[in-house]
Design goal:
The complex is a heterodimer.
Chain A: H1 2-6, H2 12-22, E1 32-33, H3 34-48, E2 56-58, E3 61-63, H4 65-76, E4 80-83, E5 86-89, H5 91-101, H6 106-119, H7 124-134, H8 145-150, H9 152-161, H10 167-174, H11 178-189
Chain B: E1 2-5, H1 7-16, H2 20-26, E2 31-35, H3 36-43, E3 57-59, H4 65-68, H5 78-88, E4 92-95, H6 99-108, E5 112-113, H7 115-124, H8 130-142, H9 149-160
Parallel strand pairs in B: 1-2, 1-4, 2-3, 4-5
Helix pairs in contact in B: 1-3, 3-5, 7-9, 8-9
The chains are: A mainly alpha, B alpha/beta.
Chain lengths: 190, 161
């Protein structure tokens, strides 16, 4: 507990960063890049309906300077290191993450796992399209949304085929009924 | 066994494969449920006799507050109510073809199968002959309705085993 306080992990933003880096995604990877940890924590907070981190709608949708600053602090403290563009926990970070997990209830941890499971292996454009469409309020100030939405059929189809959205969501995004959406896929996917 | 069906599985079994009679017979030994929302989604654009849906018994699952947040946009989808029913009835297996719903069931530890799994079960319990199975395979392959490649491979295994 003392170490958790020493490293400032009583701060929700910092604790969430350590926890999310300790979780494997669906491809068994733990590493995350900057865009993905911002989006996964944004998604998690909506899933948990508990807003503890401040986000603003900026060029790439919902981002948090609080998360960026805290990730830098974790790097400086030696709990996180950067490999290329991806962040990963150090051995000390992994050790603290195990202690931190004991402080959280299983439902909260499950939702954090689900956010990473759903989002971490998407490429940047798939991820941005998913987030802009799921949380339309984040389209404000976006520099990418207009480009992405030009090919919304393709992005929606890809997200459906990668099991990230259901047919109800896909058909709503494309303004058609579910039967028509599912029929539209078969020609190219059988 | 008890099963609760999502809309796309009902479309595959009733509309694409035309298994109304076989499902009625299957329901003699197995409970086949659909939530109201699935019935509504099936009837929206239904291309066969609307009475066919009566092969299934209607249920009104109670709202699962834990589950609702996993459907960030669509807690009103048939799939949400299908999984909700299964969560509240541990022995009831979800019948879902949609990959998102299948992944979510797997993540939450909810038992699930798909329309192809039901065809396999109907085969095992003697409700489908070899000829029926080959006809089903042909109907699914000929239809425009989407089933993942993985499910189509499973269907082939069932038909030719």
């Amino acid at each position: 507990m003392t170490e958790i306080l020493d490293y400032g992990l009583d701060s929700p933003a910092r604790a969430l960063l350590v926890l999310i880096l300790a979780i494997e995604d669906r491809t068994k990877q733990k590493t995350m890049n900057k865009l993905h940890f911002h989006k996964a924590i944004y998604y998690f907070e909506n899933l948990a309906q508990d807003q503890k981190v401040t986000f603003s709608n900026y060029k790439y949708g919902g981002v948090s300077f609080e998360l960026t600053e805290n990730m830098e602090t974790l790097e400086e403290s030696g709990l996180v290191t950067k490999v290329g563009t991806k962040y990963v926990l150090t051995l000390e970070g992994e050790k603290l993450a195990k202690e931190l997990i004991q402080e959280y209830d299983s439902e909260t941890l499950n939702k954090l796992k689900y956010a990473k499971y759903l989002l971490n292996d998407l490429n940047d454009k798939e991820l941005l399209f998913f987030m802009y469409m799921t949380f339309p309020e984040t389209q404000v100030n976006s520099i990418e949304f207009e480009n992405l939405v030009e090919n919304k059929e393709e992005w929606t189809r890809r997200l459906f085929l990668r099991n990230r959205i259901n047919a109800a969501t896909a058909s709503q995004w494309l303004g058609m009924n579910q039967r028509d959406f599912l029929n539209s896929l078969s020609a190219c996917d059988k | 066994m008890d099963y609760v069906f999502d809309t796309s599985a009902v479309i595959v079994l009733l509309e694409i494969c035309g298994l109304e009679k076989q499902l009625l017979a299957f329901s003699g030994k197995n409970a086949l449920y659909i939530p109201n929302k699935v019935r509504e989604e099936f009837l929206d654009g239904c291309k066969i006799d609307r009475e066919a849906i009566n092969a299934f018994s209607l249920v009104n699952p109670s709202l699962n507050k834990q589950l609702v947040s996993y459907f960030v946009q669509h807690s009103d989808s048939g799939e949400f109510w299908t999984i909700s029913h299964s969560c509240g009835n541990g022995n009831c297996i979800c019948v879902i073809d949609d990959g998102f719903g299948r992944d979510l069931c797997g993540f939450l530890g909810v038992k699930f199968t798909g329309s192809v799994g039901i065809i396999n079960e109907m085969k095992k319990q003697g409700y489908l002959s070899k000829e029926d199975l080959l006809e089903i395979r042909e109907k699914i392959r000929r239809s425009n309705f989407y089933l993942s490649k993985e499910l189509l491979v499973k269907l082939d295994e069932i038909c030719f085993s």
